[in-house]
Amino acid sequence: MKRLTALFTGFVVITNAIADDRAALMEDLFDLLSPEISEEQQEINDAQLLEILNAFEPIVAEAGKATVGITDGERLLALGTVVQAEGGIVTKASELIDGPMFCQFADGSRARAKVEKTALRHDLALLRIEQEGLPVAPLVREMALVGSLIATPSSRAQVSGVGVVSVGVRDLSGQGKGYLGVSMVKRGGRLVLESVGESTAAEAAGLQAGDVLLALDGVPYASMKAFSDTIAALPPEQDIEIRLRRRGETRTVTVSLGSREEAHELFNPLTAMDHMGGRTSARRTGFPQVWQHDIGLQPRQMGGPVVNLDGNVIGVNIARAGRVKTYAVPSSIVLDWLANSEDGENGKEAAPEGDRDDLAELLRELQEAEQSLKAAREKLEAKKKE
Asked: What is the pLDDT of residues 318-331, one digit of tens each?
């Protein structure tokens, strides 16, 4: 093990040796940013990388047997981690499709899978296949310390990546809220856009300073707080319709919401470099509890296990957020969810009590806004009759 650690120290491992081919432009750019090395040095680096991966093979062996590919019959959607010998497999929920899905094993065999239940906050889904006696991943509740060596197996029971724990468990739930990217003022009982942020959902949709907001998804708003709270209650990438008045003309604009986290990341050059490393997961934030590592996996490799040096599974990969930024849901969360039978209807996770309270408050504000609008219309009609 000391030999393994020594090999890893000071050596930048480019994990996922079988990753997607980079686009030519990305390759050229990274070549420019990377120092040139001789063929001899490259051969040494390759040999060291191969030695590290080979050293990790026995460590990932048990978890690798419990790693499957989730496919639509032709293309890989995600990876899955076998958590129940009777056909229970955990994976990333947002990568799944409505059509037929299959779990494909290392030996090439496959079985039809169906979604049994989901934990939407964690983006987890439990698939069920009609098969018993499956090898189960050794999930443990312990968490590796920051800087600890970890590895991930592929669906072929091979080492797909080696890295370290970058950041301990943290809460990203506040980052999964919809973000429009505007500032507003209230004039004459109307909400007016004071400014539109650069590279935001609002700018992409063509909103402009001075636009008067008439309605959001058909509902009028007189309160800036109610409007902002409604946006924040929606998920990123949610499409909304905003009816507005611009220079006397009424029009309707469709906006695909962004996220506050991504808006802040636009000004971070390190984050910009992260996103140049390839496609990130469509759902990559908003998780209540995740920890972070630096193994460069692809979005379709989410749902697979992460193991420590003892070969125990300490997490399930849930999102590729950057070039060397991958989030994993702690195994303790997965184990607690599997043991909890008190889910909502159709296997869907019930809304937390706090969320229901926030929704009730929002509905009250909407009702107040509608009553105010009704009263204003009545006054206007009365004046017209005078």
From this structure: 999 888 899 999 99
